[in-house]
Structures are given as structure tokens and as C-alpha cells.
Design brief:
mainly alpha; 64% helix; elongated
Length: 135
């Protein structure tokens, strides 16, 4: 049986996940980061509510069918949680790519010489002058 404290905690977590997903999907990372403490607190609150209900009823969800509104609430939380994970993975990959771009030299800034074998020689030892003018 879902207690009111479980339902309230789920609704709170759902609201925060929706806000964070919206911020992440719009690439507003600072806004998403501000929601992390709230999301952690809401998740802890839900965990505590489930543990408390489980202590009272042996298990809060065993042997009791979920009401349709509770089932849809649970489904919504699961869907938002999955989407949140996907968006976070995308944000992490994007941040890694930005860091990679900022920390590597553009090829135009790398010293290159046209080598004697008809290709660019990237290593210093392989660069030999093709033409030497003594004029």
C-alpha cells in the first residue's frame, strides 16, 4: 500500500526530475546543476518514506495491488528517471567533447613540413629541406 508520505515524496521527485530534464534538454547546465541538491533530498525523502512504510507493513508493496493513479505516478517517475539518465549521459559526453576541443591543438597550428617523400612530415627528424638556396 502506498502511503501518503510515499506519494508526496514521489510527486516531489517527479516535479524536480521534470525541471531538470527540461533544463538538460535545453542545454541549461547551470540550471540543471542547481537542482541536484533538491533531487538528492527528494530521493532521500522517498527512500525514507518507503523504508518507514516497509517497517510498518513488512513490505509496503507486497500483496497490495496498486491503484491506477498510483500506478501511473510510479510509471511517470520511472519514465522521467530514465529520460534523466539519458540526458545526463548526453550532457557528460558533450562536456567531454568541449574539453577535448579546448585542450587539443588545431591542425593549422601544428608545425608541418612537406617531406621529401611527397607528404607532410610531422616528426622533426623526418623534416628535410627539399630546396636549399645559396643565392
Amino acid at each position: 500500500m502506498m502511503t501518503t508520505s510515499i506519494i508526496t515524496a514521489m510527486e516531489e521527485l517527479i516535479a524536480i526530475l521534470a525541471l531538470e530534464n527540461n533544463a538538460l534538454s535545453e542545454a541549461r547546465l547551470p540550471d540543471a546543476l542547481k537542482l541536484i541538491p533538491q533531487k538528492q533530498a527528494a530521493a532521500t525523502k522517498l527512500e525514507t518514506a518507503i523504508a518507514t512504510a516497509s517497517e510498518k507493513d513488512a513490505c509496503a508493496f507486497t500483496g497490495t495491488p496498486l491503484l491506477p493513479e498510483h500506478s501511473s505516478l510510479l510509471e511517470k517517475m520511472i519514465t522521467l528517471g530514465k529520460r534523466n539518465g539519458e540526458l545526463l549521459q548526453h550532457a557528460i559526453a558533450s562536456q567531454k567533447r568541449v574539453i577535448e576541443l579546448l585542450t587539443t591543438f588545431p591542425s593549422s597550428e601544428m608545425v608541418q613540413s612537406y617531406g621529401h617523400k611527397g607528404a607532410y612530415a610531422h616528426e622533426e627528424a623526418k623534416r628535410q629541406a627539399l630546396f636549399v638556396s645559396r643565392a
